[in-house]
Amino acid sequence: MNLLRPLYTIILTNLRVLTTILDVVDILIHCAGFAVAKTFLSTPAEAFDEQMAVSYLGPAHVTKVLLPKMLIPAADGSVQPKDRRIAFFSSIGGQLSIYGYSGYAASKFAIRGFAGVLRQELEPTGILVTTVYPPDTDTPGFANENKDKPHVTEIISGPAGLWSPDVVAAHVMHDILVGRAESVQGVVGWAILLATSGISLPHE
User: Fold this and answer.
1) Name one GO cellular component term (predicted).
2) Is residue 90 among the annotated active site residues?
């Protein structure tokens, strides 16, 4: 039994109208995710499915539907696939295994891996893929995450600080538009990127 097919079907149904209206898609940004910050035994079973659906499966399925529109040049020739961008929001929790994020980290590691593979597969087309690792950002979602966050998790996350949404958004958009393979912010962000990059292939 395919338990994942219903999610893809729902996404496809909702996007079908959009794909008939749009001739092409120039920029696709997957800014999705939420964190249930609890120890593994304290995390409800459904929270693992929900975080994986929002952070990984949803973006993967949406990309599956819209990518063909990104491979088509504009009718007037003004925009080619090489001018197009796709961005996926991972997290510092998708670079490091952090106490209290068993479900969240798994979902963000998943989207990181997916983005890396897609980056390689799309290289011949010219479409550039950016993986975003934003710092803790002062949003309602982050405030909700903090309600049950273990103290150990707070201590680990503290050094990176709390960032303004406007500052984060401006930096991320710049990185996406210039086609950076990975987008990070601050000294901590760069240090973690350098420590965890492995053999990923940049396209700077």
Assistant:
1) endoplasmic reticulum membrane
2) yes
